[in-house]
Amino acid sequence: MRAAVYAVQCKNRWEVRISIDLRVDLIWWTSGAAGDARKIWLLSSGMPLGWAVKLRDRFQAEERNINDWTLWMRHGLKREHADEIEGIIEWLVEDRQAGLLWDRASGWTAIAEEQWKCLSGVDGLMDSDLTLVREQQELVRRAILIAELLVGRSLLEAELQQLLAEAAPDLSASWRTAVQLAHLQGRLHLTAALAPEERGLRRKNPRCRRCGSELLRRTACASCGSPACAYCEACLALGRSRACALLLRTAAFPAVHGTAGMAPTAAALGRWGLSPAQREAAGAALGFLAAPAKRAAKPAQFLLWAVTGAGKTEMIFPLIQSILDTRGRVLIATPRRDVVLELSPRIAKAFPSETVSTLYGGSEERWQEGSITLATTHQLMRFYHAFDLVIIDELDAFPYHNDPMLAFAAREACKSDGKFIFLSATPPLALQREIERGKLAHAKVPVRFHRHPLPVPKRISMNSVARCIQKRSLPSALIEALERSIHRGAQIFLFVSRIRHIDPIVELLKQSFGDIPIAGTSSQDSARGDKVLAFRSADIRLLVTTTILERGVTVPRSDVFILDADSNLFDEASLVQMAGRAGRSKDDPAGNVIFAAREWTRSQKLAVKQIKEMNKIAYSKGYLIDSPRLK
Amino acid sequence: MKWQTFMNSVHQFISPPVDTCLTCNKRVKQLNTSLAICEECTRTIPWIAKPRCGVCGRHIGCPDCTRPAAAQRAIVCNRSSVAYNAQMREWLAQYKYRGNERYAELLAKMLERAYTGMKREFTNTHFKWKIDFITFVPVSQVRLSERGFNQAEMLGSILSRKQRIPLIPLLERRRHTVKQSFKSRHERIQDMQGIFQLHSSAVQRMKDVLNSYSSSTSPLPLRILLVDDIYTTGSTVNACAHILKEAGLSLNMPLEVYCLTWARS
Lengths: 631, 265
What we know:
- The complex is a heterodimer.
- By secondary structure, chain A is an alpha/beta fold.
- Chain A contains 22 helices and 25 strands.
- Chain A has three domains: about 180 residues, no CATH class; about 180 residues, P-loop containing nucleotide triphosphate hydrolases (Rossmann fold); about 160 residues, P-loop containing nucleotide triphosphate hydrolases (Rossmann fold), CATH 3.40.50.300.
- Chain A is about 35% helix and about 20% strand.
- In chain A, helix 20 links the parallel strand 22 and strand 23.
- In chain A, helix 8 packs across helix 10 and helix 21 packs across helix 22.
- The radius of gyration of chain A is 30 Å and the shape is elongated.
- Chain B is α/β, with parallel strands linked by helices.
- In chain B, the strands form three sheets. Chain B has a four-stranded parallel beta sheet, sandwiched between helices. A two-stranded antiparallel ribbon of chain B has the order 1-2.
- In chain B, helix 9 links the parallel strand 7 and strand 8.
- The chains are: A alpha/beta, B alpha/beta.
- At the A-B interface, loops of A face helix 5 of B.
- Chain B: InterPro entries: ComF/GntX_DNA_util-trans, PRTase-like, PRTase_dom.
């Protein structure tokens, strides 16, 4: 879009301002509401919003006559001139509407009257708005409402319109007027969705203010008129963020802290029915929440390293409660939509008196406000300094892991003095190193909720899957192990490294085990959901799959076989996650895990080491059911 | 972390070049040379190699064109590159609604294929079929400023560049209609009344084209190629063609409107 740019003199200072409805500004500055305005000078009645924001944010203004103002703008937009069009200077100079609008001594000028007339007819600014401007009280009410609706938000114009259509339909038509007033009142920050390039000693590329990415493409834009208006290619899925797109944000309030100053008490933990291991970790996390935030560039972080099947969700309940007790807002984000859908009813049940909003692509609660927000990580881009506590579940899962865009969005969603808690069974190496160096506050939960040790993977040496498929036979060691599992009545996860191996392996298995139902599924299988359900209900006994099912799926009485465990597609985390599918239920806590491969790789060794280490800690802390020191 | 970043760049430097497919995001060694997407995606394109309906270019039998009301149609015919299926809908949505303008080039290349097919179809030994200029279905000002571009104009302008045929904006849209897909066939046709009008400079521009020919090689009737992204009932393109033909009549300039769309639903 385009925005007007003007300079206003208050006392002896000149300020440059942008406007999406200049009539509001004219009334604001001249009615005395804003104090001591002396002169208003219109610089442009409409230029690409990105340029307008740049002029406002970057350059100091002093009193000038019209020629000097033009020079000043020319200087400020030098880059844009080079990048975009040659006609920009003409555009600015030939804007006949530029000039003095108002002077305290002599009042309105002809230019101002011209502007007013113009604006009342311009697209999007209906006559009804004009009466609105006269009815100032009503306008003030609308500005306050719109600013309240946008608390903690970071929205593009199109998103604002969706929000208004749902939450305040009567504001839809005149939103520009209300937004501009809220902006003048200091309740709402208006900026461009892309931040311009910064030159100087450390040159910075232009980047997206919403996702932090630098992946930009320039195209001609009919909305602002620039022939090379940049847009962000990284976050297109959430609506297009571009150099001339309006981004609306609210001013941040300071964060609250979990039950400040108080040591976590048994009472705070008691009602949640946690196991001793869960209780200790949750206690440590509560201590972290209660500590006052340090002045730092980024919010404080805490890692809850809980083994697969530890009962992470129950552990975060007391943490959520402590923030809610101080009237703060909590966000639980996870990269995976199915996890959001699974968590939502559990959170709602644990906190029946709170409003929980559940956000994911296509969710119906997109614009609802809740004291607890559950969201996929992409949705975080719509928030700005909104949450006192951000909990990120499955930190290491796709697509959050290795995606700087989502990490940026998570950071922006958290208040600058808010707190982060990460949950993971297999934290990325970078975090593990930070723990070793003592730089990251953390707590480990080394034992499952049922207090039996994690199954330790056993090894079977066999040829590669490709070779087995070629020879049309499976090694007898594998067949025997599978037979034992089938015999004991277990459900069998059989992981392979490649999708193309699934069908041939299913065929081979059917030759050996014709009497049990066997199926295969992958990310490319549209019937995946149904097959997983059938597997859970034992209508399928053996499921051949890839890492797509490495986490999130809980099947009682299950055994895990990983073929080609030496494949470089299976890293330590992935092996631990797959192994974590076994022995999750209380009734069958000791499932079998088999790593079948030719080589015994570093990843396999590390995975086994990690599992054994967790068992050892659990044993020595007395968390296991058969630990000697258990009371 | 720094070391890892460094190693990543080293790795990228020594590993063979890999391209990312625009439509499926997979990294592949080589992209299809003409469309610049991966071979797998290229194979799934539902090309309309030979239309079953000679009028509207549909790939399946077409009851619409045999209706009595069809005699009023203003276009000579329509040809489309592809049948509109779920995947094509996704591609168009990526371009039109998500605003991923990288798709413009792909869709235009696909459109060009239908254009060359059209040319082959109408040209024979006695007759050289030639388009005098391309125009496109306009969108309303509100849509244009919301979306930032007009997809039909973009497709038309890329085709114009590739085929060296002038592109002339001839039409304007007075208001924007509610989404077409929510309406019945009858409603759509009703709705199109009075939506389009001639661009203020259109008549002059058409005259200019005509004047650029010497009188001996008089090209009449003028052949106009009307470009749009999708053909559903044909009501949009017919409404546009009506306006163009009326203008032609008033100028005493007979003209034929051929319609070229990227998809036929």
